[in-house]
Amino acid sequence: MLNENYNTIQNEYATWLNTLGFSSGLVYDYKFRARDFFEWAEQNNINHISSLTQKHITQYFEYLQSRPNKRRKGGLSAAHLNHNYMAIDKLLEFLHQMGMSTAPTPTNHRIKPDKEQRIKNIHPLTQQEIKTLQAGIINTYSNLNFIQQERKHEQLKLIFALYYGCGLRRTEGFKLTVNDIDFDKKTIFIKQGKGYKDRIVPMNTSVCKALEHYIYNFRNLQKVKHKRLFIQSVGKVADSLQELQNVCGDEAIQNKRLTLHILRHSIATHLLQNGMSIESIARFLGHTSLESTQIYTHLV
What we know:
hpI Integrase, Chain A; 15 helices; DNA polymerase, domain 1; mainly alpha; 2 domains; 3-stranded antiparallel β-sheet
């Protein structure tokens, strides 16, 4: 539990990011990373924001580079580290904006990703493994009653429609509402994706039918206060993939890392294998640079 000083700053930081027009997903992410920083500060007896120095920021960044990954083996990736650095830099900018002239200055410290290492860390699923997982959805959550099972099953099907079928990023898929789906044009409107850019993503026939079924036969019958396609929180949605992985009965799949982003990597790889041009895949994924997309040519 954070002390009152840090807890107040964390919440005000999130409010400030909102007023600047940052996406809700990024606000949540930066607030979470600021909380990690404040927890580290407390553990090191830095109990008030006025005690922070430039040296403390350097020490925290060094700590992150040596800290083990909480979700899997190994340390934090370059991308993960850079997200933390950006969040803390923005926090320091916020402190100066609020009149704290003694606050440490933003560092602009970033790590250049190791392309070869990044390629080694990506393990996309095969097309057959995707089919195996989808076929296994009906076997998940057998301990729950029918209504609870239906909710879990429908959201697992939605995961594959959006993150595999449309190659969306984690936050892009979770923010979608019914109004973002155009069944006549077979497109999905992504508002403020990565880099705050809007884009239109095409749906193939099977994805379109899956979303029509989900919205009209399930989502529109649910009594929830929000308008998002997903009923549950993004954390619970992502966790349901682990349940599916555990019951699929395929040892090769069970030994792989399965996340929402792995589904995105998988569709990109499969499109390339099926002959789609790298330029078309880049537009489909919302990449601003072909360099980001070309990593899949190495995988194939």
